[in-house]
Amino acid sequence: MRLLHTSDWHLGQTLHNFDRTYEHQCFLDWLLDTIVAEEADVLLIAGDVFDNANPSAASQRQLYRFLQQARARSPRLDIVIIAGNHDSPGRLEAPGPLLEAHGTRVVGHVARDAEGSIDLERFIVPLSGADGQVRAWCVAIPFLRPGDVPRVAAPATDDAFDAYLAGIRLLYQQACELARARAGEGQAILAMG
Question: Of 7, 119, 138, 173, whose CB count within 10 A is highest?
């Protein structure tokens, strides 16, 4: 199975008032060619797709055109996108149902059920090989804000305890345990966050 990992595209960014759309497009064109040349089965995009939480229509169009072209040039390509700290989780995830119908899974935020329990299932993404069979599992966790993580009580003897870091650790631990339960013999597990 061939995986291609990328992150921090920052589409829509300007540098000292210089529009970088052309540079971004050159990168995306190169990435399309690389996906095909390397015969990638999976493209992993680890956050900061956009430079800010309110990307321009042009930046969004650039992303969606890339996703469409990637799927057209590599029809069996699985694509997994997680939100980074620059992305709006809701905005990134909004077209998720449509994108999922075309092989792209977007995980923008932490979802909870009516009782407040974190929906760990949404972080576990099956990855298929060229034969269409599940060959690996991705634990796809977006950027975690303090309100996203489980609450962990501080031990009475630890003055340096950081509840936020302990919550992140617990969330990854729980998600990885779920992935291990899903994985069959010989199926890899990778984490992206």
Answer: 138
